[in-house]
Every structure is written in C-alpha cells, then in structure tokens.
Amino acid sequence: MDKPISTSTHNKLRLERYIRTAIGIVISAFLFWRIYNVVVLQQHFGADTWVRFGLSGLILGGMYALIAIGYTLVYGIMFMINFAHGEVMMLGAFGGYFTFEILRFIPAPTTASPDLNFLNANPFLSVLLAFVVGITISATAGFYLEKIAYRPLRNAPRLILLITAIGASTILQNLAMLLFGPQRKNVVNPDVLDRAAGWVINVGGNDVLISYTGVFSLVLSTLLMIGLFILVQRTKLGRAMRAVAQDKNTAFLMGVDVNDVVSKTFIISGALAGAAGVMWSIHMGLVNHFTGFLPGIKAFTAAVMGGIGNIPGAMLGGILLGVIEAIGPAGMGIDFQLKDVIAFSILVLVLIVRPSGILGEKLSEEKL
Amino acid sequence: MKRIVLFVMLVVAFVLAACGPAAATAPEVCNTELGCAVINKDQTVKIGFAGPMTGDYSQFGVDMSNAMKLAVADLGDVQGWKVEMAIEDDGGGAEGGAAVANKLVSDPTFVAMAGHAFSGATAAAMPIYEKAGIPMMSPSATNPDLTAQGSAVFNRNAFTDAEQGKGAATYLYETLGIKKLAFIHDGTDYGQGLAKVVEETFVSLGGESVAFEAITPGESDYSAPLAAVAAAEPEAIYFGGYNAEASVLVNQMEQAGLSGVIFFGGDGIYGKDFLAKVGDKGEGVYAATLVPPGTDAILAFNEAYLAAYGTEAGVLSAYTWNSYDAVGALIQAINSVAIVEGDTLYIPRAALVEAVRSMNGYQGIAGVISCQENGECNASGPVFYIVEGGEWIPAE
C-alpha cells in the first residue's frame, strides 16, 4: 500500500513546484517589463548615472558580502543566526575611527611641512594599523561572544541561541552608546584617501568619479573573500570546519577538537566583520553605536539570498543585494526610500523559486 | 441588626472621606469637568518636556531640556511654589510620544507641557493632553498640520514649517538666484512637509523643481539617491530633514558628482553638531533657522548656559532660546490662573488651557509670544545662516 501514497505525494510536490515556478515567472516578467519601461523607453538617467549607481552598489555590496560571510560561516557550523554580528562589525568600525584619531594627534614634522601628523606622514602604515586594530577588536569580540554567550547554550534548543544572540546584540549596542556617546563621529581619513578623491572617467560626455576609498574597499573585500575561500577549501583548519559543519559528533570521533574549531570560526567571522567595519568607517566616514545594525540585517538577508551556510553564496548574495539596492529604485522608477521593498521582493522571489537560496546550502549537509 | 449598623457606619465614613478638607475649601472654579491640579505645600508644580534624549537625534532633547531647566531656575515660581521640569525620553516618534503623554498625565501635579520636541511625537500625544486639559507650548514641533487639527491645547512658539519653507524658497530664488532646485527629504512629517512647501513656493515664483527624492533615515550611504539627483543637474539641493542624514549627504555630495552645488537645509540641520560631523566639507552649506541675532537677554542666557553645562548655547540645536521662552510663557500663564487656599495651590486646568491660548505680548528672550486662535504663537520669520570657516554666520 506504500506506492499510491508516495505517488500522490510526489504529484503534489510536482504541482507545488509548477505553481512556484509560475508565480516566479509572473513576478519576474512584471519586473522586467517595468525596468524595460523605465530604463529603455523613458531614459530618465544617462549612462554616467547608471555607472554611478553600479559603483555605489558594488562598493556597498562588497561590505555586505564580507559581513554576510560571517553569518554564513557561523550558521554552517553552529546552525544559528548570530544576530550580534553587525555589532561586532560596529566595534571594528570604532577601532578604525579611534586609530585614526590617535594617529592624527601624533606629530611627525618634517622640514618641508612642520605641522604634519603621523596619519598624513605615513598614510599606508596608518591604514594598515587601523585594520590591525579593527580586526583585532572584532576578532576578540567574536571569540568572547561565543565563549560567554553561546558556548553554555551549545546543546540548548536553537530558538534560545537566537534570542541570546539578539540580547548580545542589544548589549553591545548600548555598551558602545554608553562608552562613545550617541552622536555620530566624523572619521577623518589621511589626505590621500580623501573621500572625494579618485580617478575620473568619462562616460557619455560626463565625468564620473571613482573614489579611492571605494576601489580600495572593493579590492580588499575581494581579496579577503578569496583568502577565506582558500582557507576553508585548502587548509587543515578549513577541513576541520567543513567536517564539523557536516556532522559534529562524527567529527569529534575522528579527532577534531570541536570547541576549538567553533572558537576559530567565530574569530574568523569576527575578523572579517572587523575588516568590513574599518572599510565602512573609511568609506562612509560616520560611525556611531548603530552603525552595525542595518548592515548586519542587510548582510543576513544577503546570506539567505545566496544560500545560508554557503560561502560563495554569501559573496554573491552580498554583491547582488548592494547592486539591487543602488540600481533597483532608479530602474523601477520609484523613490529611493523604497529600495528595501525592492531588495526584499527580490529575496522573496529567490526563495519562491529556490527555497535554499541561489547557490543552495552547500557547506552544511545536515539541515535542522 | 449588627450588619445594618456596620453598613451605615461605612456609608457615613465614605461620605466624610469624600467631603474631606480638600472639598470643603476648593475654590468654585474647580467645579468643572477638568477640575484643578491640587498641589500641597511639599509638592512642586510640574511642567513636562519630552524629546529624543538618546539616539541619533538626542542633541535636540538634551539641549532643549537643558534650556528649560535654566528657565525654571530663573522664573520657576508660582505664588511661592517651586516649578519642576518632568523630562521624558520619547525617542521623537509617535509610539514614544503617546507613551510619554500617558505617563505624564497620570501625575496629578503635572499641569502644562513644553513640548513635544518632534512633530511626529507631538501629533500622537496631542489627543491625550486634550483629554486631560494640559496646555502645550512646543518650541520645536513645526509641522504645519499640527495647528490645523483644531486642538484646543496645542500651541507653539516655533515658527511653522510653512513660514520657514516660504522664506527659504524666496531666499533661494531671489537672493541666491537659483533657478533649478532639487529636493531630498527623509520622509518624516517634518522633512517631507518642509520640502513640499519649499517646492510649491519655489515653483510658484518661477523656479524649476528638477528632482524630488526621498531617503531612508538612519543610513550611512546615500550615494545612489545623490547620483539620481546629480543626473538632474540642479544648481542647489534643498534638504528637508535633520542633521544626522544631512551630514551623510554633505559628506558624499562630491563623490556623487555634485561639487559646487549649494546644499540648503532647514532648522533641523543648524547647530555646531552638524559642523563637527561634516568637517571642511560643510563650507558653503546654508540653513534657515529661527536663531535670533544676539540681544542682551540672549547673551546673558548664553553665558548662563555655558556656565551650567560647559557647552555653548546653540551648539546642539537651534531650539535653545525658544525652549527657554516656552517654559517662561507657561509659567506666566500658570501664575495668572493659580489660586492659593490655605496651604494648597489650585490650578484650574480649563482656565489654564484658555490662558495659554489667549497669551498676548509675552516678552521672551528670543521674541514676543502672542498666540493666534489656532495656536500659532510666533510671528518672527526665519534667519539665514551659512557655514564659513567652520562657523555658522548670518548670510547676506
């Protein structure tokens, strides 16, 4: 009597899939019609404006991707959403800000310019220092976050871990507000990395500025992502991480130190968030205790869109989300205030057609 | 039988309690629906204030409450009773506004409200004060709609967004000679309302509105909306919103290809806090505000403010002086209706609401407060400031 039941279930599943695909096609068709209408028929914006949108999206997307990798790594190994991840990034951003502030007050006079400070005398070293400080702070925060908030709950139901993560996020945010004050702080870059400096290219008769800070962020986030991919795929630690992600107990029996791997995962995800935070402070120029919250939520969305638990998926999701946010409202011909509507509509669309994200869950085989 | 005796005794006790000493000596004027605030010898008269005391806009709440504390220290006397500020954090939004209003009206010694600071919170709180008979005098809630709702209790000595917007549009078109103006607003009651008024006036003067974009408040990257505005090639950008977003916009304007375009804001961006956030990118930014030119009274206040808080007045927001005046005006109104009977101060609520609404010629430090029938109490127009050499200075 097994057969008829399984066939009917099978048919039902197939029907569901058809309906899903149909809905997906209808929404996609509407989107494309609307974009065609606005972009091709109305020609409200010139080519230079589209290049500007694209650049702004790529830069933001690169940072989203770095943060999203942190979500995905932790999810892949612990099956939990680390909602305090955005706050870890915020701490990194403050690390960068304070490094610049301190270096700005260290005099480094030369004969040519007597009131030169360390920041402008050694811009390369200063930026490097900012990254070292930011990454160290965030990696430490990630490490202790896991040790204090999550490790005691390792075997608790996942909902409890989620609530703990939200609690940790609130605590870190308020701590930063009490320590540094609620107002936004202006990050003063070295003169060579001025936010308005960059290469000027000519697109369709108009000048488009490609800022150094933007290119710097994009290149650095790409390098870090490649580095992480190599770490996970080619090193011993990476293999241990993948083993823990597949099956914690078996990995333990095979001699993998699970606690150590989890700790290191949090350190790596914290370090990436820290790098994103320093980039954020260098490129955006304003930081406060709330800096990490929105990017954190966006990066989580990006991780889900790309397939949570999947590292290339998080990269793709991050870049895609950044570009959609920048180009979407203009492409659809609606207000920029509604960019989140477009981003989340795309997310829903992706989840309808591919419930496990664009690239699917690859890192983790064990679901739920 | 015993039971009946007990019952009768209980009734007598209740009746005695109800006609206790308070009822016996309460003045005639308290026999209205709203009644009186009854303040005993050891209590204080409370004037409320609510604004964002934490978060991105906290400088407004902190600054205004600071000025109000100075006002009660200088003028806080109602026929021998001390006046005290009841300061609450409403976060600036509607939910916080209603919650704070409910909390404040539950205090029987709370008689008047010098707020709220933000228009959104004020709109949500108005009906609650209306019910409780609490007159309001907001130094900063500038949304035009607020006085159009026919509220009996809402008054403001802030000048309205409509006045400010008309002034700004005229200044942009006539004084600065701008013909193509782009608009960015933050979608709030204040920002969007202001941008709309400026756009209407600017277009009616003969100018061209080339873009009207909304941004999401609280973000750190507005390069995409700025690129869309840049595509329209405006000569100036009018921004309706507060300094948190304005500082991000000003920081990113050059990146988006808007160098040399004038950035013009409202009273929400005026203040030294904005200058600290934008650094030298703020040069040439304009703001329309109600900060008055320095008279003796203002200079004396500025000195007191600096001595009390270690910050110069006007650094945090433009509403400092108006906040002082709002409390001063409310205290005068309370004094005009308060009645002392024995050891108790009675403040008839209905009469106080009327006294504030009919206020005429109160001389504050920032100007004269005379209320019209709809609750508009400030007649002075906006003053224009420009950033030069890292300072706000009055523009031509």
Give an overview of the whole structure.
The complex is a heterodimer of chains A (368) and B (396). Chain A is mostly helical. Chain A has one domain (44-353): Orthogonal Bundle (ABC transporter involved in vitamin B12 uptake, BtuC), CATH 1.10.3470. Chain A is built from 13 helices and four strands. In chain A, helix 1 (2-42) runs antiparallel to helix 13 (339-353), helix 3 (85-104) packs antiparallel against helix 5 and helix 3 (85-104) crosses helix 10 (258-284). The longest helix of chain A has 41 residues, at 2-42. The radius of gyration of chain A is 23 Å and the shape is globular. Mean pLDDT of chain A is 85; it is low at 363-368. Chain B is an alpha/beta fold. Chain B has helices at 2-18, 21-25, 58-75, 94-105, 119-132, 161-175, 189-205, 223-231, 243-252, 272-278, 296-309, 320-337, 349-357; strands spanning 36-39, 45-51, 77-78, 81-89, 110-113, 180-185, 208-214, 236-240, 262-265, 286-289, 339-341, 344-348, 362-363, 368-369, 383-388, 391-394. In chain B, the strands form four sheets. In chain B, strands 7-6-8-9-10-15-16 form a seven-stranded mixed sheet, sandwiched between helices. Chain B has a four-stranded mixed sheet with strand order 3-4-2-5, sandwiched between helices. In chain B, strand 8 (236-240), helix 9 and strand 9 (262-265) form a beta-alpha-beta unit.
Write the layout of secondary structure elements.
The complex is a heterodimer of chains A (368) and B (396).
Chain A: H1 2-42, H2 47-78, H3 85-104, H4 118-121, H5 123-150, H6 158-180, E1 185-186, E2 198-203, E3 206-211, H7 212-234, H8 236-246, H9 248-253, H10 258-284, E4 286-287, H11 293-306, H12 311-332, H13 339-353
Antiparallel strand pairs in A: 1-4, 2-3
Chain B: H1 2-18, H2 21-25, E1 36-39, E2 45-51, H3 58-75, E3 77-78, E4 81-89, H4 94-105, E5 110-113, H5 119-132, H6 161-175, E6 180-185, H7 189-205, E7 208-214, H8 223-231, E8 236-240, H9 243-252, E9 262-265, H10 272-278, E10 286-289, H11 296-309, H12 320-337, E11 339-341, E12 344-348, H13 349-357, E13 362-363, E14 368-369, E15 383-388, E16 391-394
Parallel strand pairs in B: 2-4, 2-5, 6-7, 6-8, 8-9, 9-10
Antiparallel strand pairs in B: 1-12, 3-4, 10-15, 11-12, 13-14, 15-16
